[in-house]
């Protein structure tokens, strides 16, 4: 078994205590939520923090609650299985509940948290390997090296955003509540990402994701998540598709959104989805044509690289297929879309 | 004297009353009993190698090569040795004697001597007070390498003159072994065929992925006795290899296999860690343990050889095969391992269950700079079986024959000889075909399912052990010792390796049946070279057949004594005394019976302390030519599968929905264990067909040495599996039993390919069947016949 490097574990009881601990420890400290991503990465010596600040003992970070103006707040330490099963989220944010329901496998969803999934490190076949393996390679741009093995001569890391919940939250226009030494701030999730595989988030030192907030969705809200993977469990996405369709009283599309992940360093929105789908009606055959146009647009827009395992050309071919199927699932109220 | 000699080849269970074929008279055999170690494993009580902790024990780690092919210029371990807590560092120079599981090809070193041949090759080992210190020390060892050109492609390795991966390998290029054999008039028979199909097939690399990684613990006593506990399936060969490399008398070496968490052929070589812990224990005077990481297990590999195969099959209009001609290039990886045997098995094991009037094969194993390949479940024959069974479907397609019918038509029969001189005894293949045809609804459903869904069939045969021990010797292949206690308990000592397949359970069932005991009153002591008679190990599906026969042999000797003593005490004919259900019974007088303990005591009084030995050796078998004994088995198992698949036309994804597995195992000594082996085999085959890919990337680095990136199916990916046991009752098997652990894997892969053809009309001939390949083939087909594809079923 790979050994976990030695570290000190700090167990604060409040968010402000955690922020203080992080500030004091400086860059050698990291936050651990469920640990399902961080601990394997530490075994691979991708991170070797001296201090891990565990959020497990902070009660205020757990659970889903209704707040003012019809908004919902999901505590960052709420487990993925709890998100997947929450009746309110399943009704008001089906894409998110579906995405959470097919992250990894059952055991990891019990330990893994919504906050941890949002904060997931980007992934690459040249990076998520043991120290020995990376040393034999001569390392890579993302960690300890100067060369990118995905893009010859590449100067920018293209490791893939691989969090299933991120695109779902983007279709839901979620905001992230972040607390740090300077106090609390609220960020629309769209503005949280940067296209840099080394670290694809706008987060300041000693900041902690505290809550994910969802605004009210209209009664005609529909959503779904689609995930391409080799197996029916465990695997990270080879492609993730979140779809939103808001239907008006007449059953016509009033708003629509499609966001893809696991292609590049940040989740990407399929442009013009809204304009291509608005006014169409899922109960009419013309809807299939409209979906096909969105799917084709997604194909043109997306050029996945050979960053994560699997054939990049195949992943690209699957973009329109999964965009189409996920939109259809959203319209039908079914999903998630995935093999098995 | 072996069981077959004692009881004649007719039927080892021949003294049983009629009705035996239906198992009516058995008390233990044929019953779905739990494994003898099942509860211990389920509760966590079982002791695996890594559970062993000895006082003062050190932990060892291995430094591995970061280069795929390089000469070692120098190794400087001084900084590692200076690290507090480090007790010893060893390198190749400490164990310069080469070894190999096959005595003719000793091309491995415990640690690389002057060259490294793949990324992950072992270079040095450290013993320290704990794992973290050992890991830290490994990073402090400085090695200077001179990198050499590395070969990842077998064709390129074969064409290369320099550099050689092994300087002393024979012939041009990097040839590990070349075998060319021809039987019958192949040219003439192919010329006389009405139809000839010729095609290329590729089988990729796959590996075993046992749950338990390799682990070994060594202790060297002050009086010079070496004990090694190792997660191995070949205690006897490990003991021999340790003696050779460490230059110790073999009698001073004890090798013990603790409870084992799966092997599948991946633990049937001596491995670097066994030598390293032994040497480090000898140097430090303290016990030493080494546990490999999952990544290291991927480097140790010895899994399925990639094979590039060209097959040509000729047939008459009625489907009868006239000849099969094969040319195979085998990608061996960095070392020989069992490769000599692989090169033979790739050809020798194809000559059933069908009659080949003529057959020729030419197989070449070449070295490449990749983790060494070796024996994985169905060693050497799974790949050719895939190619041939797909080709046989192509022949049936050309001739307009039903795929099951063409297989029936070519059935070789029972009690016959194959074209390459192998003796076939029992053969239940037709019954296997009948079973899968019936259970799958083949006649009603094949060719009639909606587009995207289909059925495919394939057949196979496999050995139940072979008469070729890896080092030639005339001694028994399996030995058993029994010790009776007057309490009514029997202890069995077997050298057999229970690797999870249940061989210890089988031994206990046989003893319980033979001596009339409850299974709980049989203790099994296994795989300990100090305590147990020699057995050659768990490979080639030999254990149930050989150890089983040896067990029956030992039991019958004891039973004769017990029955005689009781008959004398009762003053009746011996034929009236029966041992069953924990009692000695008078068959002619139902009122007379005594507990088995009392019978043991009567016998002990009559004969002295009771014990016996039993053994098994194969009869003389095999063709009269060089290599003719390789693959010559005392019995062969036969299998047929029907797979049902669905193909997603948009994503190219194949879902294996159901597999019907009919397997002729002779007699199912425990149908639950047999069914488990059949299901496990099919599972493994499906994994190889659809998901697994053991390969290196362009830098020679393993493409994904973890159970995250190396995909094996999870529970939700596993189809419905239907195990249909066929019992042909082999004349020489223990109670008629044959193997069940490897044969049932073979047809699963070609059956899937053939089912995909039924579903969407494409022939998948290159493994693995990834969605991308399926989409490409669908598109090519569309381009060829657009109208048919849209309108018709195919």
Helix content of chain A: 25-40%
Low-confidence stretches of chain B: 1-23, 789-794
**Multimerization state:** heterodimer
Task: Name the strands of the widest sheet of chain A in spatial order.
Answer: 4-5-8-6-7
Please report the distance between the alpha carbons of the first and last residues of chain B.
60 Å
Largest sheet features of chain A: 5 strands, antiparallel
Beta content of chain A comes to 15-25%
The fraction of residues in strands of chain B falls at: 15-25%
Tell how many strands the DSSP assignment of chain A holds.
12
Derived structural class of chain A:
alpha+beta
Please give the largest β-sheet of chain B. Answer: 7 strands, mixed
Share of residues in helices of chain B:
25-40%
Query: Structural class, from secondary structure content of chain B?
Result: alpha+beta
Mean pLDDT of chain B: 95
Query: What is the terminal-to-terminal distance of chain A?
Result: 30 Å
How would you describe this structure to a colleague?
The complex is a heterodimer of chains A (340) and B (794). By secondary structure, chain A is of the alpha+beta class. In chain A, 31% of the residues lie in helices and 19% in strands. Chain A has a five-stranded antiparallel sheet. The model of chain A has no long low-confidence stretch (mean pLDDT 97). With 794 residues, chain B is of the alpha+beta class. Chain B contains 21 helices and 28 strands. Chain B has a seven-stranded mixed sheet, sandwiched between helices. In chain B, strand 13 and strand 14 (321-331) form a beta hairpin. In chain B, helix 15 packs parallel to helix 16 (543-570), helix 16 (543-570) crosses helix 17 and helix 18 crosses helix 19 (748-760). Mean pLDDT of chain B is 95; it is low at 1-23 and 789-794. Chain A binds chain B through residues 1-3, 6, 105, 125, 128-130, 132-133, 135-137, 228, 230-236, 309, 311, 313-314, 317-318, 321, 339-340, and chain B through 64-67, 119, 131-132, 135, 213, 291, 293-295, 650-653, 655, 691, 699, 701-705, 708-709, 711, 713-717, 770-772, 775.
């Amino acid at each position: 078994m790979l050994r976990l490097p030695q570290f000190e574990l700090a167990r604060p009881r409040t968010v402000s205590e955690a922020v203080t601990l992080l500030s004091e420890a400086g860059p050698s400290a990291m936050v651990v939520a469920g640990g399902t991503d961080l601990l394997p990465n530490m075994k691979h010596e991708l991170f070797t923090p001296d201090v891990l600040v565990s959020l497990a003992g902070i009660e205020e970070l757990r659970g889903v609650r209704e707040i003012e103006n019809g908004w919902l707040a999901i505590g960052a330490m709420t487990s993925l299985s709890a998100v997947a099963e929450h009746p309110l989220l399943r009704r008001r944010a089906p894409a998110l509940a579906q995405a959470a329901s097919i992250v990894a496998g059952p055991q990891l969803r019990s330990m893994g948290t919504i906050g941890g999934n949002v904060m997931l490190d980007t992934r690459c076949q040249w990076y998520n390997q043991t120290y020995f393996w990376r040393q034999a390679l001569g390392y890579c741009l993302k960690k300890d090296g100067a060369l990118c093995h995905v893009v010859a001569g590449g100067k920018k890391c293209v490791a893939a955003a691989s969090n299933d919940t991120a695109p779902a939250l983007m279709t839901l226009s979620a905001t992230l509540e972040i607390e740090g030494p300077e106090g609390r701030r609220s960020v629309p999730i769209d503005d949280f990402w940067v296209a840099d595989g080394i670290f694809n988030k706008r987060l300041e030192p000693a900041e902690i994701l505290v809550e994910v907030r969802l605004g009210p969705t209209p009664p005609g809200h529909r959503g779904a998540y689609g995930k391409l993977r080799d197996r029916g469990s465990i695997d990270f996405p080879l492609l993730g598709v979140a779809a939103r369709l808001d239907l008006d009283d007449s059953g016509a599309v009033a708003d629509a959104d499609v966001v893809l992940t696991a292609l590049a360093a940040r989740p990407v929105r399929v442009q013009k989805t809204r304009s291509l789908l608005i006014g169409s009606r899922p109960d009419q055959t013309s809807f299939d044509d409209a979906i096909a146009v969105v799917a084709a647009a997604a194909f043109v827009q997306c050029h996945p690289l050979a960053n994560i395992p699997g054939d990049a050309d195949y992943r690209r071919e699957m973009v329109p297929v999964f965009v189409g199927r996920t939109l259809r699932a959203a319209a039908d109220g079914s999903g998630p879309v995935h093999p098995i | 004297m072996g069981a077959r000699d004692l009881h004649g080849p007719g039927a080892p269970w021949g003294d049983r009353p009629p009705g035996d074929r239906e198992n009516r008279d058995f008390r233990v055999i044929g019953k779905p009993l739990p494994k003898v170690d099942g509860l211990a494993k389920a509760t966590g009580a079982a002791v695996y190698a890594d559970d062993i902790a000895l006082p003062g024990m050190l932990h060892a780690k291995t430094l591995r090569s970061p280069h795929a092919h390089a000469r070692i210029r120098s190794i400087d371990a001084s900084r590692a040795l200076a690290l507090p807590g480090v007790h010893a560092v060893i390198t190749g120079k400490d164990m310069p004697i080469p070894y190999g599981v096959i005595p003719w090809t000793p091309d491995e070193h415990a640690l690389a001597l002057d060259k490294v041949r793949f990324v992950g090759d072992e270079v040095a080992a450290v013993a320290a007070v704990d794992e973290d210190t050992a890991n830290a020390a490994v990073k402090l060892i400085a090695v200077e390498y001179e990198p050499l050109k590395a070969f990842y492609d077998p064709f390129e390795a074969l064409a290369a003159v320099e550099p050689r991966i092994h300087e002393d390998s024979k012939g041009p290029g990097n040839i590990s072994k070349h075998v060319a054999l021809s039987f019958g008039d192949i040219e003439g028979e192919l010329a006389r065929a009405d139809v000839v199909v010729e095609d290329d097939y590729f089988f990729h690399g796959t590996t075993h992925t046992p749950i338990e990684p390799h682990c070994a613990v060594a202790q060297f006593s002050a009086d010079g006795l070496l004990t090694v506990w190792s997660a191995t399936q070949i205690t006897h060969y490990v003991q021999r290899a340790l003696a050779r490399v460490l230059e110790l008398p073999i009698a001073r070496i004890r090798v013990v296999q603790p409870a084992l968490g799966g092997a599948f052929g991946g633990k049937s070589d001596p491995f670097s860690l066994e030598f390293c812990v032994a040497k480090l224990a000898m140097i430090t005077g303290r016990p030493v343990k080494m546990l490999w990481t999952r990544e290291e297990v991927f480097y140790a590999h010895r899994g399925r050889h990639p094979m590039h195969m060209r097959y040509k099959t000729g047939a008459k209009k009625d489907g009868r095969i006239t000849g099969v001609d094969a040319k195979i290039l085998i990608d061996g990886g960095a070392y020989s391992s069992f490769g000599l045997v692989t090169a033979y098995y790739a050809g020798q094991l194809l000559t059933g269950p069908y009659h080949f009037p003529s057959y020729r094969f030419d197989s070449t194993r070449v070295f490449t700079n990749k983790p060494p390949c070796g024996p994985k479940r169905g060693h050497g024959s799974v790949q050719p079986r895939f190619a041939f069974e797909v080709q046989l479907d192509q022949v049936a397609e050309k001739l307009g024959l039903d795929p099951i019918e063409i297989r029936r038509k070519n059935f070789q029969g029972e009690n016959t000889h194959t074209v390459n001189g192998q003796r076939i005894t029992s053969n239940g293949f037709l019954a296997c075909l009948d079973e899968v045809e019936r259970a799958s609804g083949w006649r009603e459903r094949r060719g009639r399912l909606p587009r995207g869904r289909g059925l495919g069939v394939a057949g196979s045969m496999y050995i139940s052990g072979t008469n070729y021990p890896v080092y030639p010797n005339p001694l028994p292949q399996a030995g058993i010792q029994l010790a009776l206690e007057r309490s009514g308990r029997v202890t069995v000592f077997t050298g057999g390796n229970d690797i999870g397949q249940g061989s210890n359970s089988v031994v206990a069932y046989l003893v319980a049946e033979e001596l009339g005991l409850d299974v709980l009153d049989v203790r099994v002591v296994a795989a300990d070279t100090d305590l147990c008679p020699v057995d050659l190990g768990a490979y080639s599906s030999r254990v149930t057949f050989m150890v089983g026969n040896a067990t029956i042999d030992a039991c019958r000797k004891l039973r004769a004594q017990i029955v005689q003593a009781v008959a004398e005490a009762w003053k009746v004919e011996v034929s009236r005394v029966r041992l069953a259900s924990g009692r000695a019974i008078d068959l002619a007088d139902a009122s007379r019976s005594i507990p088995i303990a009392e019978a043991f005591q009567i016998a002990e009084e009559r004969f002295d302390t009771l014990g016996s030995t039993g053994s098994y050796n194969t009869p003389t078998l095999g063709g009269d030519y060089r290599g003719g004994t390789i693959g010559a088995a005392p019995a062969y198992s036969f299998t047929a599968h029907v797979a049902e698949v669905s193909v997603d036309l948009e994503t190219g994804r194949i879902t294996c929905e159901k597999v019907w597995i009919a397997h002729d195992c002779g007699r199912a000594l425990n149908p639950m264990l047999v069914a488990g082996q059949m299901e496990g085999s099919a599972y493994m085959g499906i994994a190889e067909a659809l998901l697994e890919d053991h390969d290196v990337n362009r830098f020679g680095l393993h493409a994904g040495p973890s159970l995250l990136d190396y995909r094996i199916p999870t529970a939700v990916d596993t189809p419905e599996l239907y195990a249909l046991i066929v019992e042909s009752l082999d004349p020489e098997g223990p109670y008629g039993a044959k193997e069940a652990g490897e044969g049932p894997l073979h047809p699963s892969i070609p059956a899937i390919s053939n089912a995909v053809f039924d579903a969407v009309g494409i022939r998948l001939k290159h493994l693995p069947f990834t969605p991308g390949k399926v989409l490409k083939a669908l598109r090519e087909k569309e381009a060829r016949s657009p109208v048919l594809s849209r309108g018709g079923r195919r």
